[in-house]
Amino acid sequence: MNIEEYKGVYVFAQQVDGVVGGIAFELVGEAKKLAKDLNEEVTAILIGSDIKGQADELGAYGADRVIVVDDPALKDYRTEPYTHAMASVIKKYKPEIVLIGATAIGRDLGPRLAARIHTGLTADCTKLDIGDFPLNPVPGKEQKHNQLLMTRPAFGGNTIATIACPDFRPQMATVRPGVMKKNEYDAAKAEKCEILKPAFELSEKDMDTQVLEVHKAARKLVDLVGADFIVSVGRGISKDVEGGIKLAEELAEVLGGVVGGSRAVIDSGWLPADHQVGQTGKTVHPKIYVALGISGAIQHKAGMQDSECIIAVNKNSTAPIFEIADYGNLKD
Q1: 58-86 core/surface letters (b: 16 or more CB in 10 A; e: else)
Q2: For the range 296-305, what are the long-range contacts, defined as Cβ-Cβ under 8 Å and sequence gap of 24 or more?
Q3: Given pLDDT bands bounded at 50, 70 and 90, which one contains residue 212?
Q4: Distance of CA 310 to the CA centre of its chain
Q5: Is the dihedral of CA 241, 243, 247, 249 positive or negative?
Q6: Which of 67-81, 152-166, 244-258 has the lowest mean pLDDT?
Q7: Is 75 helix (H, G, I), strand (E, B) or coil?
Q8: With bands split at pLDDT 50, 70 and 90, how would you rate the model's confidence at 204?
């Protein structure tokens, strides 16, 4: 492998039912930062059926060009056809970096694609940088520059690992939704965005499954990532779990927000898993984050510390949550 042949930062622009997901715009925003450090361009890969009209939107959020792979067989996500489409694009254009959202689709696509093109994959990243690897010089070992440094929680969220893929290309990562910030929409950028439509073919061996029916989930999951106001509860409500959750729900309703919870709350079964905030849950950036009875373990803080305003309520005035809170009760 000639690593020098691989250039540019590419993003898998996930779409469902013809609508590009917010994670795609978040990845484009992050890709722009990485590409600036590398003096490269950002390319979005848009796969589906009759989705050409969505390419301009990706340009408006910062993509320099969009590669559109449009085929009726790609209307619904299936592992093999999408892996084949992505692998075909990567083999043709040779990107240096490929970013995929850590969604249900991305977590299925990423590992299969990495295996197909013989490279590494760092899953569920919460931070991306361009830098040297190893991070600190090691005697007798070459330190390589301009590497993608991929940071993610490890060992159940109890530590943070920074991983690189210095010997293979592309460098691939799946990125947790809500961690990165999308750029402002700019219609002028959409007009400048280059749209590419490479030739693409699917054979029978690339379609070993068929979609017979699509059933939407009946239960609507809570949208923590998109919420402007979040009221979260922690272990501190243990003396009156039902009352604590009810109080959080009432406050969230008044604010027009949603209810979140710490890992302890989810593990105890007090709230469903889609309410979890933290490294092993959702990373959020609301306008206001209210933490009720949350001590502020490092894993939880990592998932909400970038909130615009943090209000903490806790009996323990030395709780770590007060280290990042804008407002709080500081008396026991």
Answers
A1: bbbbbbbbbbbbbeeebbebbeebbbbbb
A2: 296/320, 296/321, 296/322, 296/323, 296/324, 297/262, 297/263, 299/153, 299/157, 299/158, 299/263, 300/234, 300/262, 300/263, 302/126, 302/153, 302/278, 303/277, 303/278, 303/279, 304/230, 304/232, 304/277, 304/278
A3: confident
A4: 22
A5: positive
A6: 152-166
A7: coil
A8: low
Q: Transcribe 222-280 into DSSP letters.
A: P--TT-SEEEEE-GGGGGGHHHHHHHHHHHHHHHT-EEEE-HHHHHTTSS-GGGBBSTT
Confirm if 122 and 154 have CB atoms less than 8 A apart: no
Question: CB 277: neighbour CB atoms within 10 A?
Answer: 31
* 147, β-bridge pairs: 131
pLDDT computed for residue 257 by the predictor: 93
Q: Are 106 and 17 in contact (CB under 8 A)?
A: no
Helix axes 79-93, 104-117, angle to 10 degrees: 50
**Is a pLDDT exceeding 60 seen at residue 331?**
no
**CA–centroid distance for 295 within its chain:** 26
Q: How many residues does the chain have?
A: 332
How far apart are the C-alpha atoms of 231 and 241, rounded to whole Å?
Answer: 15
Label residue 187 by pLDDT band (50, 70, 90).
confident
Give CA–CA dist 223/260, Å, rounded. Answer: 10
User: 202: which 2 tokens?
Assistant: 């699917």
Would you say 57 and 20 are in contact if contact means Cβ atoms under 8 Å apart? yes
Closest C-alpha among 257, 192, 199, 201 to residue 230: 257
- Band (330; pLDDT cuts 50, 70, 90): low
Q: How far apart are the first and last CA of the chain?
A: 62
State the pLDDT confidence band at 325, using cuts at 50, 70 and 90: very high
The predicted model scores a pTM of 0.77
Look at residue 158 in the predicted model and tell me its pLDDT.
66
Q: Residue 260's beta-bridge partner residues?
A: 232
Distances in Å between the alpha carbon of 292 and those of 17, 74, 82, 230, 261?
38, 45, 43, 11, 9
